[in-house]
Structure formats: structure tokens, C-alpha cells
Amino acid sequence: MLHVKLAYTFDRCAGMRTQLDNPLFDILSAIHASGSVGQAAARLQLSYRHVWGELKKWETALASSLIVWERGKRARLSPFGEKLLFAEQRARMRVMPQVENLIAEMEREFALAFDPNVHVIPMVASHDLALPRLKDSLARDAKLYLDLQFRGSMECIEALSRGECLLAGFHVSEDRAPGSMTQKAFKALLKPGRHKLINFVGRQQGLMVARGNPKRIRGVQDLARPDVRFVNRQPQSGTRLAVEQLLAQAQIDPARVQGFDSAEPTHLAVAAAVASNLADAGFGIQAAAAEFGLDFIPVMREQYYFVCLKEAVDVAPISTLRALLGHSAWQEGIRDLPGYDTAGAGEVISLSRALPWYAFRTPK
Fold it and tell me: What distance in Å separates the CA atoms of residue 360 and residue 88, rounded to the nearest whole number?
């Protein structure tokens, strides 16, 4: 079976464009109409040699004859050539409305590239339910578009350092004491004088369990019980780091937690695993638990930050983003997400203020 590959190009003469062009079918159609390879070449403004070469190339590729030659008679398409041309014409008529819609949508998107008032922010961020709403709000109200990818928190900052994005998103718990796992994970990635933090949202993280909490799970200590199945987040995610830190504080070896090495890429995926009885508990945000009708046991508050390079924080498009985050209209738009708060949204925070280990100096 042959496979179809579509491609597109640009043309300033919108009224003259044709869709789903394929040179083979232009040649077949011209021969079908004229009965002559020479006349077909003239119609297409191509040389006879070129048309003849294309026919032979496609006959080899398709392993079938496309035209029939008879001395003293008009050239005509072979039965296979007729069927091929008919199939293309029928398929084209069927899909053309969808193709026209696709082209119109693509043209609207490409038009943004020529609008000097439109900006795009390449962003790599830890998964969060408010981010898609922010993306929609920025596009609607500020002509600012987030080119958004979700990765683990540490991976996001590494991507910023490699120049893969303009903005990164990560979250840390309020337990940020010097010597903590949080310090060990983030201190090597974030540099005072190079990076600036922007407040996004505060979130409640905790244990998500089935409605009614049938296993009577009360806290992190219960994750070590042999009858409790846990579902984790992926390595290098901020939530995975929070789980590891909580287990260390409770003096629980991760090996004792059934399912510690099972990982899901998002809060919603963890909630779905619990909701479908693949696990008895997972760790994630309250809004994800609410999405799947799960019970939620709050464990800690955390702050979600955006991070950018120092030189970008006060210029567009980052300054536009910060202004929108401070608007009440945007903040009202996420009031329905359980466990979220927008205190200080859009405010620029220094690393030493947000992450206290930067204020500590190694004794001489």
C-alpha cells in the first residue's frame, strides 16, 4: 500500500493557489484531456523531455504502466492510470473542505509572526493545572503566546540554562531549610545575579486517596504499610523531590513504600491511577484530586515560581506576563481551582529571599 505525505509552501497570491498539488496528477490530467504528451507538456509549460521523464519515473515507482502508446492513435491513460487519476480526484473532492479549514487555521497562526505586537515565550514548566488557563488568558488579553512544554522541575531549569526556553516553571515546598534535599537539588541550578524568580501561584500538595479513604490513610507514615499501594511522580520532578524529603523526615526507607518506583508524568495521571484503583494513594495537588473526585489529605503548601534570566525580567514579553499575573481578572480566573492562591502573583523575588540557603555563607 502507498502512503501519502502532505507538504505545504507559502504564496502571496491567495486567489491563485491550488491545494493538494501533485505533479504526477497534473501530467495525467493533461494527457487525459489532450490525448498527447506533447500537448500536455505545452499546457503545463514544461518540456516534452521533462514530462516523458516524469512518466517513466512514476511508472517505475508504481510498478505499473500509466499511458498506452499505439502507432497513429492519440496517447491515452492505461486502465491503471485512469483509476489512479479517478481515485485522486475523488479523494481530493472529499477532503478539500477539511483542507481549506486547515489552511485557514494555519494562515491565522502564521499571521501572528508578522504582527509586531505579538510575542511568543518558549517555556518549559513543571505540570500545573493553572498553566493552560494562563496560556489562554495571555493569548486572548495580551497577544502573548506560551510555547509550553511540561517536564520535571529540575529539567525545566536545566533547559533554561541551555538556552532552550525563555522561561522555566518549577515549584518548591515551604520546607527550604539549609541542608534539605530541596537545597541540594536546586542550589546548583539557580545562580544569584543570573536568575530571577517570579511568583506564579501557591498550591496545596498532599495525599490523594479514594473517596471515603477506605484504607484510613492519615499521613506519610502510612505509605510504609504493606497494604498501601503508592504511585509516585517521575525522577527530577518537584513532587518526587517533595515525597523523598517527606519520607526522609519520617525516617522511612523508600524501599518500604510499595510502588515507590512506579511513576506518572503529571498530577492528573497520578490522580487517575488512584481513581482507577491502580494505587491506594498518590502525592499531588488538591485540584487534581478534586478533578477525579478523590479525597485529599493536605500535607504542605508550596510555591510555584517562574524563573528567567536577570536581563529578561523587565523587558517584553516577560514584563507583559508579570503585569497580567498581577491583574485581578486573571486571578479570578483560577479561583475555582481548589488549593490554589495567588498571593504576590507577578512579583519578582530574589533568590536569597525565596530560597534561604543563599543567605548562608560557608564558615571560613
Answer: 71
- Is residue 361's pLDDT more than 70? no
Bond before 79 cis per omega within 30 degrees: no
Decide if 119 contacts 320 (C-beta within 8 A). yes
Q: Could you tell me the pTM of the whole model?
A: 0.74
What tens digit of pLDDT does each residue of 72-112 get? Answer: 678 889 999 999 999 988 888 888 878 878 887 888 888 88
For residue range 255-304, what is the model confidence (pLDDT) as tens digits? 999 999 999 999 999 999 999 999 999 999 999 999 999 999 999 999 99
Q: Are 131 and 91 in contact (CB under 8 A)?
A: no
| Distance of alpha carbon 221 from alpha carbon 218, whole angstroms | 8
Mean pLDDT of 187-191: 92
* Alpha helices (runs of H) in the chain, residue ranges in sequence order: 23-34, 37-44, 48-62, 79-111, 131-142, 153-161, 181-186, 238-249, 267-275, 286-291, 318-325, 328-332, 351-354
DSSP line for 328-359: HHHHHTTTTSTTEE-TTTT-EE-HHHHSGGGG
In which residue are the cell numbers 495525599 written?
207
Q: Is the dihedral of CA 126, 131, 135, 141 positive or negative?
A: negative
Dump pLDDT digits (tens) for 10-54. 877 655 445 678 899 999 999 999 999 999 999 999 999 999 999
Q: What does the buried/exposed string (b/e) look like for 264-294 if buried means 16 or more CB atoms within 10 Å of the residue's CB? A: bebbbbbbbbbbeeebbbbbbbbbbbbbbeb
Helix (H, G, I), strand (E, B) or coil at 208: strand
Written as nine digits, the cell of 193 is 545575579
Q: How many residues does the chain have?
A: 364
* Three cell numbers written together for 1: 500500500
Using the structure block, give the residue that is written with the C-alpha cell 473542505.
Answer: 97
For residues 348 and 200, the answer to whether their CB atoms sit within 8 Å is no
Q: Which of 319, 310, 320 is nearest to 190 (CA)?
A: 310
Is a pLDDT exceeding 90 seen at residue 213? yes
